[in-house]
User: Fold these one by one.
Assistant:
Number 1:
Amino acid sequence: MTSTVPALGTRTAEGSALQAVLLDMDGTLVDTEGFWWDVEAEVFASLGHTLDESWRHVVVGGPMTRSAGFLIEATGADITLDELTVLLNDGFEDRIDRALPLMPGAGRLLAELYEYEIPTALVSASHRRIIDRVLTSLGAHHFRLTVAGDEVPRTKPHPDPYLAAAAGLGADPARCAVIEDTATGVAAAEAAGCHVVAVPSVAPITPALRRTVVTSLEEVDLTFLHGLMTEMR
């Protein structure tokens, strides 16, 4: 996608400048939402339990404490939350060490944000140990700031991660564009007062006020993101 990109801070209407872009990680930039479910299924199989496919929509996009806690309760597995968290993180790390596919358009979008010096943050419910492994593939230089799910008092769907990212970049949340793939992440971004671009990965997301839904990151460039600040005020 070729763009004619306005300079950072250019306004087409009062208060419409794009100040920062905040991106989710799993399912948004890297094609890993399926990895988490596969690892969860394998771990619980080793404990003698089979996960119901319908639970996938319950656990997608949420913090590990919520997802793991739900699965322990749903299966009755004899394991503590702390023990399960270690097993899930270990299994996920093994998966991403073997393969870490980017979502279509992710590499191009990150390169464009970096080229035009748009303040950019990675905001994930995944733990720091996972984010740091993924950054080796995404390129840590693409992000001025990263926020992990185990570094905030309340992670998604609460607004805390996106508020922390905006504050860390010195940006007004209302002038931040957030790119998310799950309803949980969308709820967090909207609660923080951000404009949202939803790229659904597992479950459908409907358009709403200050929320635009696209089918792929290939539809998103800086002209598109600047336009949101005008159209969705």
Note: Residues 1-15 have pLDDT under 50 and may be disordered.
Number 2:
Amino acid sequence: MKATEVPAIAGAYLFEPTPYVDERGFFCRTFDADVVRSVGLDPDAFVQDSVSRSVRGVLRGLHLRSGAGEAKLVRCSYGEIFDVVVDLRPDSPTYLGRAFFELSGETQKTLYIPAGCAHGFQALTGTADTSYRIDRPHDPAEDVTIAHDDPDLAVPWPLPVASMSQRDREAPSLAEVLKQLDLKQLER
């Protein structure tokens, strides 16, 4: 497994497994504590695993957590997604930086997203399962959502939106969220 820094988002990493492929399919390690530790992350910090299933065109996000924030490892375990990260840490050298990834069940790449970054994705295939490994228990009172189509972010979503939650449809702009929150709380 190889870890690569994400230049557009300070502290973000892309973990690429080395699959063993044969006539049966493939086998690969999707999490390796030693590799995670080698880039300065605590592998024992992750306390919750979750999974979402989406159909083609479903958009989830852009989400982040207030308070202490939430770091996470994100992987598309089946299908393919267009994944988006936005750095909202005011003291970060990549503040307001954006990064886009295609994550898929074929590659099993995992993206580490630091606390204080917004995250969202769109399913590109008929079914897309997205797995999350999160460093804090979920508290719905800390959920923050930013409009997926905010012109200041100009995210190039690859497909028309087939479906999204009511919360995501009604999300405020980035400017409104920045006015409402003291995002410095999101930094660790």
Note: The first strand starts at residue 2 and ends at 5.
Number 3:
Amino acid sequence: MILAFDGSSVDGSAYTDVVDLADRSPGWLDDMVSAWSTYGLAVFAVLMAVAWWRARRVSATAAVIALAVPLVVVAGYGVDAALKLVAREARPCQSLHVATLEACPAPGDWSFPSNHAAIAAAAAVALWFVSRRLGAVAAVAACAMAVSRVWVGAHYPHDVAAGVVVGALVAVGPMAALRRHPDSPAGWITGTRLRPLLAAS
């Protein structure tokens, strides 16, 4: 038997309210939210690609900052995944035994913090350092991702809130430091075969 923390005492009632609302909602709305919850992270990948494409037309240092975004997102995911192994919180669908839009994961697939929320938040914060406009779009998308993960029944509200905090905190430090000192990595990359990544031909 896998020993797991039961997070239902934190905000289980709020979770069931959202899941009940999803159950009473029109099918087309549930389908849209489920699709976003499942495939929405691809939007952040597109935003990162757009940010890099535009930055390389500005300057090598701007391109370096844009190239750092996916690395920061991977770091955010890594930290979040490590925290999952420490917290070992059972999924709400396992603890509360409710019917959800998303199939209930198997025991051992921990809930706290939310990986989706952490990835989305890390991308939004990191993109903000590249482009305020893209960062704002990503922030709205990150909020939608966090809400969707509760809507489909995959996470408690505190799971997604913690995921957002983790992703944001992991992203803000490295991106702020890199924006203050982008010249050194830009100079190193310029001297390698990766130079085309920094400037439009």
Note: The CA atoms of residues 171 and 190 lie 24 Å apart.
